[in-house]
Amino acid sequence: MQFTVNNEADCNGTALESEMEASYHDLRELFGEPKTGSCDGGTSTEWDFVNEDGQVATLYDWKETCLYDLALPSIYEFRKLPMQHWNIGSKKSNVALELRDFVLKQIKRLKSGEFYDDKM
After folding, report:
1. Which pTM value belongs to this model?
2. Which site in 29, 42, 47, 77 is 20 to 30 Å from 63, CA atoms measured?
3. How many domains does the chain have?
4. Please, is 11 exposed, middle or buried when counting C-beta atoms within 10 Å of its C-beta (0-12, 13-18, 19+)?
5. Distant-in-sequence, close-in-space partners of 25: CB < 8 Å, separation ≥ 6
6. Is residue 116 in some structural domain?
7. What are 37-93's pLDDT values in tens digits?
8. 118 found inside a domain
């Protein structure tokens, strides 16, 4: 399943369905600058995706930075870590799993030196 980054997509009603580990550096290189976080401080970094069937999913940090708790790393420090924990939200668990597989495949291609497929 292919996904396209669409940070204007309506992702209201999505919820945690999957999780993954990846570096912010790789994600930013693949998908561009993320959206800013939520107004409640729960997220600092988010990308929204739409698949070819029009279903939405989000890739985001959750309560990982000082926006949520001052004892946690700053956004800058969080993004500099070698690896981060990411949540994947969607309205259906299969869409979240498909996004996770898609992202991991794109990271593998990036690491192997393959050209980035801009059909995403």
Report:
1. 0.89
2. 29
3. 1
4. buried
5. 79
6. no
7. 776 768 899 999 999 999 999 999 999 998 889 999 999 999 999 999 999 999 999
8. no
